[in-house]
Amino acid sequence: AAMGASKAEVNLFPNYALTSESSSTYQATLATESGYPTLTLNTSGVTLVAYDMNVVQNIVDVGRTVSFSAEGFCNVANVNAGDLTIQALSSSGAVLSTSVNAYITTANAFQKITTTLTLPAGTTKLRLRMINRNGAGNTICKFRNATLISDYVFLKYVNPAQSSGSSTNSIFHVSKSGSDSNKGTEA
Q1: Separation of alpha carbons 137 and 146, rounded Å
Q2: CB of 130 within 8 A of CB of 40?
Q3: What is the tally of helices (H) and strands (E) in the chain?
Q4: Which among 178, 177, 132 has a CA at the least distance from the CA of 39?
Q5: Are the CB atoms for 128 and 150 separated by under 8 Å?
Q6: Chain segment 21-66, per-residue pLDDT in tens
Q7: Which one, of 126, 86, 80, lies nearest residue 103 by Cα?
Q8: The predicted structure's pLDDT at residue 6
Q9: Alpha carbon distance 75, 139 (integer Å)
Q10: Going by C-beta distance under 8 Å and a sequence separation of 6 or more, which residues neighbour residue 177?
Q11: Which of 178, 132, 127 is nearest to 22 (CA)?
Q12: Per-residue pLDDT tens for 159-183?
């Protein structure tokens, strides 16, 4: 979870490690840079990495607004650089709607960019896309720290209190060196 505007926001992005898992297209190389999993998109043409996720009732349901963000780096800026988009897909895989492209606007520095989409009727899947437009001498395009946030009101608040007798944690502790099989307790 990330703190913003004094409210907690839950990161719904399906693949924090940015591997090929859950991707429909993966035209990138993965490396760790400054401690972050970082995608370097191929520069042989327009390339992309697209992650698919099923619509979850209430959280990314029809009529909800979702925001997709990442830090992007490119050696050129704007329409020749890299960008993010969200696509709403039907059960047959048809594209129902695509968000406005969020372009990297500063060359040679990591910059957070964000795009948003209100999900139309018939949406059963989201496709989260990181794209290298490969224009005007573009030789490098990278993305890291991807997040997906829903406007679903109950995601905006995290209750740190755990009721007595509850067998589940309401607070999860996370470590870079931790194991995904751990329960999220402080220990």
Answers
A1: 25
A2: no
A3: 0, 13
A4: 132
A5: no
A6: 999 999 999 999 999 999 999 887 889 999 999 887 767 778 889 9
A7: 80
A8: 46
A9: 7
A10: none
A11: 127
A12: 444 334 444 444 566 666 777 777 6
Residue with token string 């946030």? 149
Q: Which DSSP category does 99 fall into? A: P
Mean pLDDT of 102-129: 95
What is the signed CA dihedral for 31, 33, 36, 38, rounded to 10 degrees?
-40
| Residues 147, 87: Cα–Cα separation, whole Å | 15
Instruction: Give the model's pLDDT for residue 125.
Output: 92
Residue 95's contacts (CB-CB under 8 Å, 6 or more residues apart) are 87, 88, 89, 127
Retrieve residue 132's tokens.
């290298």
Please report, for residues 6, 19, 171, the alpha-carbon distance to residue 156 in angstroms, rounded to integers and kept in the order given: 10, 27, 15
Tell me the three state secondary structure of residue 40. Answer: strand
Question: Per the structure block, which two tokens stand in for 17?
Answer: 């490690």
Which H or E run contains 67?
Answer: strand 65-74
Q: Does residue 161 contact residue 173 with C-beta atoms inside 8 Å?
A: no
C-beta separation of 58 from 131 below 8 A: no
CB neighbour list of residue 105: distance below 8 Å, 6 or more residues apart: 77, 78, 81, 111, 113
Which pTM was predicted?
0.78
